[in-house]
From TrEMBL:
One Pfam family of this chain: Glyco_hydro_72
GO BP terms, alphabetized: fungal-type cell wall (1->3)-beta-D-glucan biosynthetic process; fungal-type cell wall organization
Record InterPro entries: GH (IPR017853), Glucanosyltransferase (IPR004886)
Family designation: Belongs to the glycosyl hydrolase 72 family.
Protein name (database record): 1,3-beta-glucanosyltransferase
PANTHER family in alphabetical order: 1,3-BETA-GLUCANOSYLTRANSFERASE GAS1, 1,3-BETA-GLUCANOSYLTRANSFERASE GAS5
Source species of the chain: Torulaspora delbrueckii (Yeast)
Length: 475
């Protein structure tokens, strides 16, 4: 019955893809060198967007499956003047066609995190959470959204590395990147970019960027790199914020880089968003391709542009007006903005205990997941099977509200104060809450027990557990 149902689902997906809407308002965005380009006009594409997960992690809902919410918010997006939203979590068992069409009609693209709070790579035990059932969940999300031309890309992970001492987790995130890209190819979808959204951690920001873009296997390298950066606070400047140093760090990077979260709220009143003037100018356009402001709706962490009143109404806050003004007055650079096509992919950083502990040898994809390449991922599991339920230890401490790491230090100081808008709202691969204050010891996990080669070892009993769980779901 499973093979029959998989075949039916595969045929349905193929028919749907054949009917994929190709609205001229959102032609597919391609990557050439270190920049995005409109596939029809050839013009460079800069991300002007917001991070969007109304309800936050405390009241998790799928905003792209609720037509009333889409009718409420998409006109607000248009008023703001954005062209992209990032959504952290969706329910892949629900219908997203109507909202995706509404976004397309409005000329708005989507960057989607494929993980959910339940289906994600665990910082505490990444080898355990990387299993066939987890891959079934994220492949199902790709199967659902690959049909839409206005999907700009997928994020394979969000701030999985959130401190200096859990860099070993990058090995598994890179394996997920490889598996997602191979799945997209095997399913004959268009070449949808797959990337990673990184916490801006001073000790490993450059190492992380290098690692995810290194190696001879092109399929294991990301296509785009997002940085969650809150270093420009209030009336700061290119130099004071440390943006000038970020430009030096990422200069020569061969892929598009953008701010997957920005908008420090450590200000006396509303956020002025003065960084827009630098981000969308030739001062930064040779390296950066825009960014996404954190975040659309006002949640407990007070980063909102609007206050949600009801399912049909929002109130625009002063932050909204300030951002709208900055977006409207700052034009994109002319031409290609200094984009480069000659940069080479990065050299892999050396393994160094306590500094960078990710391996260049990646774990093999669980064999039970190979069927998804040929037959599709099968019946969606919604917001995800708990991939950590088969682990020996409870990962709840790892996924607590204190595990995020994005700092808001003005300039490039060593301040460890976290505003943590971050990411961690809803879809962080660790399910962290966006309200965290600083990196806690709970999320450092048991790094002392990790060995240099341990990341490439998959424990046999857990593989069998994953297969057993998968067979149980199939039956």
């Amino acid at each position: 019955m499973f093979w029959l149902s998989s075949l039916v689902l595969s045929l349905c997906a193929s028919l749907t893809l054949g009917q994929s809407s190709n609205s001229t308002s959102t032609p597919a965005i391609n990557i050439t060198g270190n920049a995005f380009f409109n596939s029809e006009t050839g013009e460079r594409f800069y991300i002007r967007g917001v991070d969007y997960q109304p309800g936050g992690s405390s009241n998790l809902t799928d905003p792209l499956a609720d037509v009333e919410i889409c009718k409420r918010d998409i006109p607000v997006f248009q008023d703001l003047g954005i062209n992209t939203i990032r959504v952290y979590t969706v329910d892949n068992s629900l219908d997203h066609s109507e909202c995706m069409q509404m976004l397309q009609d409005a000329g708005i693209y989507l960057i989607l995190d494929v993980n959910t709070p339940e289906a994600s790579i665990s910082r505490y035990n990444p080898s355990c959470s990387y299993n066939a059932v987890y891959l079934q969940s994220i492949f199902s999300t790709v199967d659902d959204f690959a049909q839409y031309d206005n999907v700009l890309g997928f994020f394979a992970g969000n701030e999985v590395i959130n401190m200096a001492n859990n860099t070993y987790t990058a090995t598994y995130v890179k394996a997920v990147v490889r598996d997602l890209k191979n799945n997209i190819k095997a399913r004959d979808y268009r070449a949808i970019p797959v990337g990673y959204s990184a916490a801006d951690i001073e000790s490993n920001r450059e190492l992380a960027a290098q690692y995810f873009n290194c190696g001879d296997d092109e399929d294991a390298r990301i296509d785009m790199f997002g940085v969650n950066d809150y270093s420009w606070c209030g009336q700061s400047s290119f130099q004071t914020s440390g943006y000038n140093e970020k430009m030096k760090i990422y200069e020569g990077y061969s892929l598009p880089i953008f701010l997957s979260e920005f908008g420090c709220n450590q200000v006396a009143s509303s956020r002025p968003f003065t960084e827009i003037g630098s981000l969308y100018s030739t001062q930064m356009s040779s390296v950066f391709s825009g960014g996404l402001v954190y975040e659309y709706s006002n949640e407990t962490n007070n980063y909102g542009l609007v206050q949600i009143v009801s399912d049909t109404e929002v109130t625009k806050l002063q932050d909204f007006d300030n951002l709208k003004e900055q977006y409207s007055k700052q034009e994109n650079p002319s031409g290609n903005g200094g984009a480069s096509t000659s940069n080479e992919h990065s050299t892999c950083p050396d393994y160094e205990e306590g500094i960078w502990e990710a391996n260049t040898t990646l774990p093999e994809m669980p064999s039970a997941a190979s069927v998804y390449f040929s037959s599709g991922a099968g019946a969606p599991q919604g917001t995800g099977y708990d991939t950590q339920s088969q682990c020996d230890s409870d990962d709840s401490d790892d996924d607590s509200s204190s595990s995020s790491s994005t700092t808001t230090s003005d300039s490039s100081s060593d301040s460890s104060t976290s505003t943590s808008a971050s990411s961690t709202d809803a879809s962080s691969t660790s399910s962290s809450s966006a309200t965290s204050s600083s990196s806690s010891s709970s999320s450092s996990s048991s790094s002392s027990s990790k060995t240099k080669n341990g990341a490439v070892v998959v424990e046999i009993p857990r593989v069998f557990q994953a297969i057993t769980q998968l067979l149980t779901m199939i039956i």
